[in-house]
Amino acid sequence: MAPYNAHYQLQVTRLKNFQLGTGTAFNFTASPSQPQYFLYKFPPDVDSVIVRVTSETVYPCSVVSIQDIVKKDFLGEQFFVVFVIKPEDYACGGSVPFSILGKTNETWNLRRMKRLAVTVVPSIKGSVYVNAMLFSLLSFFSFYLVALVVAFVHYIRNQRKTLTGGISPDDGTGTVASSHPITTSMPEGSSYGAIDESSSSGGQQLSPLGQRPPCGSDTDSSVEEESDFDTMPEIESDKNVIRTKVFLYLSDLSRKDRRIVSKKYKIYFWNIITIAVFYALPVIQLVITYQTVVNVTGNQDICYYNFLCAHPLGVLSAFNNILSNVGHVLLGFLFLLIVLHRDILHRRSLKTNDTHTMEYGIPKHFGLFYAMGIALMMEGILSACYHVCPNYSNFQFDTSFMYMIAGLCMLKLYQARHPDINASAYSAYASFAVVICLAVLGVVFGKNAVWFWVLFSIVHVVASLGLSTQIYYMGRFKIDVYDSDMGIFRRAVMVLYTDCIQQCSRPMYMDRMVLLIVGNLVNWSFAIFGLVYRPKDFASYMLGIFICNLLLYLAFYVIMKLRSSERLLPIPLFCIVATAVVWATALYFFFQNLSSWEETPSESREKNRPCILLGFFDDHDVWHFLSAAALFFSFLVLLTLDDDLDSVRRDKIPVF
């Protein structure tokens, strides 16, 4: 590094403290011209150790290496610990110090001296691994036990109701109170969401049981496809009449054949399995390659571990971070079992032609719930893959199925009151594919490319407006592709003039308008924030967009449910409280940054912390445990939120 000839003297001295002890800290000083070498010999009862090195300062940059002994003069079960001070700080993220230029070698060498302390301690015993595994498994199997108890209690209660004659379905008068703001604003003689029998020939009314077609099986190959229906202009006109009414009931948006709609939603389940297999296999192959490179080269700067609590097992460098993801897999499978149990009970009721099942409550379609369970399991698998070698390029694996979980939850909320017009699996997964493509582009170009943030912000705002239009008009806002360009713009201007200027005092669909205004403000704020600040962690930024939208829609749904005088039963109420508490606790541990691939490896190690649970798990592992439980409770909220409507007729359940 010196721009002039360097004169040096070579001095050989005998080291008095050449061998390191076990469990004792050894302090020393090193410089670029004087690296330090030490020997460590394993005690008889120790076969694995951890070398911990600390320093009071980050700079000057230094490198620690463990080197095998290759000379025959040394016995086995020993290794060298070598400390080298770099002549420059590039390797640690710094720059060339000004002290190098115009200074003598002695002065420069003094400025590059660094005090270090090294401690060699035995690694944890095998019993700690066993205890950690048992703790992880038993903690989540306790959820299975609680689920069995709850199912048994429900079974006993249902048996008692059967013996006492059961309960009669509610006609709905007790659900929508007379003081409801919607009903009080209706003109006299009008019916909220009712369908005039003479209005169209395509309206499907709640008919007596004997006049309904046979239910059949959802998986019956003889069931007609959805494309066989709604092809006549009269049917299309009937859709326009029904869906553009000011006030809607659930019966208005659950008019299609139940078998066809249920088959449509089951595609979500089968498609997500296919996506999971094709996505996970190359991910697993890639992280195995990363781990192999780390093991072969010994370069610990490739992966950003919490080295103060990274417990290896076999070829894995941080087994604890992988084990802690078992909760996502176990609770995802438990959720599938709970959904399957409900699905079986629903099928049994349909086989008996139960009027209560066919014409009361929210229509039961379980395809989206099955997809959510698979997504939760895949989140655990891909999070474990990411933690095999956590770095900037791999983080997208940890978040991809989080996008899908948030999207599926929003679709499920919308499906509850709009079963006939919810998005198909193909369009939904195509949208998720676009999101993941944007996430990949964000990883590659998001750090410095301004054009990417401009493009993403435009796509974000346009997508928000387009989705808002579809939600506001219940999918009935269409632009003829054969219109001229001026015709398209003329149509858009007329709609804005009619709905925003002529009726600016009160929108036609007030509740939807409030939700969409707040939603667009939130999304535009995200777009502006990203364009101005350009966060380095693009994957977390996009995940924040999805989570905020999901929370906003869930809050709107619960508020509208309570506003419509509907009830929250004890189980969904408990799940809501548990979800809020567990998420709050989980986020506390999530923000305890133990490493950061946004910084250099040496700077990331400054954030490392010791284990906090069983001497095996760190703060991020606790986040894994709690986030799995929080997602499970969140799914239960969506599964049980409308159980209070099971005894209410669908023509008495409001749509919002």
Radius of gyration: 32 Å
For the report, how would you describe the main beta sheet? 4 strands, mixed
Structural class: alpha+beta
Give me the count of strands: 7
**What gap, in angstroms, lies between the N and C termini?**
71 Å
Strand arrangement in the largest pleated sheet: 1-3-6-5
Q: Which strand-content bin applies to the residues?
A: 5-15%
Low-confidence stretches: 98-102, 172-237, 479-485
Order of helices and strands: EEEEEEHEHHHHHHHHHHHHHHHHH
The coarse silhouette is: elongated
Helix content: 40-55%
Mean pLDDT: 79
SS field, number of helical segments: 18
Task: Offer a concise description of the structure.
Helix content is 52%, strand content 7%.
What does this structure look like?
By secondary structure, the protein is α+β, with helices and mostly antiparallel strands. Among the domains are: 19-126, no CATH class; 262-429 and 567-652, no CATH class. It has 18 helices and 7 strands. The strands form 2 sheets. Strands 1-3-6-5 form a 4-stranded mixed β-sheet, with no helix packed on it. A 3-stranded antiparallel β-sheet has the order 2-7-4, with no helix packed on it. α7 (326-351) runs antiparallel to α9 and α12 (450-472) packs antiparallel against α14 (510-533).
